[in-house]
Amino acid sequence: MAEYSIGVDLGGTNLRAAAISKDGKILDKVSVDTNGAGGREAVINDIVQSISGLRTKQSSNRLAGVGIGVPGFILLEKGIILGSNNLPYFDDFPLRDEIEKRLGTPVILENDANAAALGEKWMGTGRDVEDLVLLTLGTGVGGGIISNGRMVHGFLGMAGELGHITVVPNGNPCGCGNIGCLEKHASATAVEATARLLSLGDNLTSLDVYNMALEGNDRAKRVFESMGSALGIALAMLVNTFNFPLYLLSGGVLPAWDFFAPAMFSELEKRSYTFRNSKTRVERATLGNQAGLYGAAYLPFQRAN
Ligand SMILES: [Zn+2]
């Protein structure tokens, strides 16, 4: 019997799940809206139904387990989301155990950006390295660290919260309690906030700002330069800390690469001796929003190794 696992990417907007074979082939997938308005019970039902549906259709194959990536701070051993802006109804709830109980299958809970980093290591740009860092630039900024081919968890499972490292000492306040967090200066939300500060418009989306930059608007370009500088500061710290060969960026803001990358690389050059004197790669991740699914599905395989 061929072995496969099921990866789930539970976001504030979408719930996606895929059955993936041990050699990394997507066998089947489903996607539904996250029924946040329905509350905890509705979302758990949708998760369980998505997984059961995939499992039934793979009847001739053997299920290795289920991995679930969730946004937020998690307690790995307990399988609990300690706090999540996107899924507040799961705070302090034993999500892993509840889903295990209903499915009768082992479940591993993981932070979504950690899962995405693992996905890039397994099937994406990180395939040829053993050590990498992934930064996901979306509504917030997530981070995942892979060292010696394995995820770095810290003692509770909260390692890699790179969106909350300080890049501007007196910068914008963040929901985590800090000020000047990377995600307050280098996310889609940060792009929108900076655009407001530069009087580009009050209700612009990051895509609007990107389109203005494409049309040659200098202030819109400056928004992305500011984002690039913040990213460069963060990356310099990471390069200096880890001396890994590869740092990957992914997420909704990635199409603006040409606008933010020059400022990012110039800051990185300035702030990291290691970067200047090594062939450190800083690149775009290739799996896009599939990375989280691949990574979540890889979790049961990795545990078995
Ligand atoms: Zn923060």
Describe this structure in words.
- The protein is α/β, with parallel strands linked by helices.
- It has 9 helices and 12 strands.
- The chain has helices spanning 39-57, 95-103, 112-123, 188-197, 206-214, 218-242, 257-271, 273-276, 291-304; strands at 3-10, 14-21, 26-33, 62-70, 73-75, 80-83, 107-111, 132-137, 141-147, 150-151, 246-250, 281-284.
- A hairpin with a 4-residue loop joins strand 5 (73-75) and strand 6 (80-83).
- Helix 3 (112-123) crosses helix 9 (291-304).
- The chain binds zinc ion (ZN).
- The site of zinc ion has 5 residues, from loops.
Task: Tell me the layout of helices and strands.
Layout: E1 3-10, E2 14-21, E3 26-33, H1 39-57, E4 62-70, E5 73-75, E6 80-83, H2 95-103, E7 107-111, H3 112-123, E8 132-137, E9 141-147, E10 150-151, H4 188-197, H5 206-214, H6 218-242, E11 246-250, H7 257-271, H8 273-276, E12 281-284, H9 291-304
Parallel strand pairs: 1-4, 4-7, 8-11, 11-12
Antiparallel strand pairs: 1-2, 2-3, 5-6, 8-9, 9-10
The structure holds zinc ion.
Short overview:
With 305 residues, the protein is α/β, with parallel strands linked by helices.
Report the total helices: 9
Ligand set = zinc ion
Helical/strand content category: alpha/beta
Q: Please tell me the overall pLDDT.
A: 94
* Beta-strand content bin: 15-25%
- The spatial strand order of the largest sheet comes to 3-2-1-4-7
Give the helices and strands as they follow along the chain: EEEHEEEHEHEEEHHHEHHEH
User: Ends: how far apart?
Assistant: 18 Å
Helix fraction by DSSP (H/I, runs of at least 4): 25-40%
